[in-house]
Amino acid sequence: MNSEKPLFGVFTGTFIRPPWTPLLLLFGLLAILTLQIFSTDTVFSVWWITGLPGADDGSSGPRDVLGDERSCVGFFKPVPRRKVVMSIADFGGVGDGRTSNTESFRRAVRYMQGFGDKGGSQLNVPKGRWLTGSFNLTSNFTLFLEEGAVILGSQDPEEWPIIAPLPSYGRGRERLGGRHVSLVHGDGLTNVVITGANGTIDGQGKMWWDLWWNKTLEHTRGHLIELLNSNNVLISNLTFLNSPFWTIHPVYCSNVVIKGMTILAPLNAPNTDGIDPDSSNNVCIEDCYIESGDDLVAVKSGWDQYGIAIAHPSANIIVRRVSGTTPTCSGVGIGSEMSGGISNVTVEYLHVWDSAAGVRIKSDKGRGGYIANVSFSNIILERVKIPIRFSRGSNDHPDEGWDPKAVPKVKGIFISNMVSLNSTKAPVLEGIEDASFEDICLTNVTLLGISRSTAWKCEFVSGFASEVFPVPCAQLQHKGSSSWCSYS
Q1: 344 Ramachandran zone, left/alpha/beta (phi>0; psi -120 to 50)
Q2: What whole-number distance in Å separates Cα of residue 331 and Cα of residue 291?
Q3: Which of 202, 278, 294, 354 is catalytic?
């Protein structure tokens, strides 16, 4: 998918998954040596060699990198072994890559719905290529893709029915009115598992990308997987390819774990975000590799006046050990649809290369809402154009009903232990006039490749910076107490 390889990594199939411990140590040593050659300033703390600060376990001292086995699988309450296990072949499915299995998948789920209160059920997808249109899941249910199993998204738009827009968006994200349903869909579910032995779901999205490029798209494209109003969800150990639109979209959900996923789309495929938790809480995303034409991970919570009215925030989100590349967007973005509010987001051990931005806060006039208590730590960036970016002014609104006086409040953005190699531009931190962008905290941040004399671009922000190279803008050189800007 990507001809430019990261500096350190191991081949796994068609992509590179970086080994985190040597990656951190080697980059730390490389950066220290670089600074010793080109600078008399020492900007690195000992975390690169001796450990990492605790983030979610209450500890304040250094943590041994080799012993760091933190996981948030506890967000998902384990389900008992399913009482009924059947194969899609039992419902007439044919895995030849040509026969439509839409009715087989729909019939299978309808049948298995009857076991939801009798121990639950599991639908196995054996080795083969199983072409299908959209189908719904049910509660107390596992969709299991065996090794060599590939679910293929139908190339017939009629097999992706139109459904109502999300209340917090008021319309389809790309077009007015309704939107195409996702390939794998669910609403109001509980205890759902989508997993397997590294099977594949391929949305075959080129048909949809062509409609977008040709400006002939009539309705907003469907996601590969979207779950609404659902609780206790696990998505793991699979490969997702070529989503028509955003790949994994949990919205109005709680207790969601997305773990051990490989998500791939061509780097020019439009809006193929990897994982977008939206108006959801208690979400864990970890150990994932993503290549896409948009953000690897984007945290959202509704769009302008519709998101403000629904007021369903995203909160308690953990993104850990995610790596990948996107040429036009960011490794992790907050927003831009954030009108219901976003708080308590922890991003750590992020590795991004050959991308437009590393970490990004996206907002605008009309959004309203808030972004509060977001931390990015232990970040490795390679050849990332703008390592840190706060952006505004997209002029992207659902309709004429948005309120230009509805401005976001941003408070408590913590960025620590970041190294960016071969950066081409200084950070851009653009707040919004008459909005509050405060308590921006940068500690132990080193951006190599940027000249000492290159000025940061900062407007309408305030905060504090310590051990940051090159020297940040004056707005981050707060003269008062910096005790709030500390992890120790």
Answers
A1: left
A2: 10
A3: 294
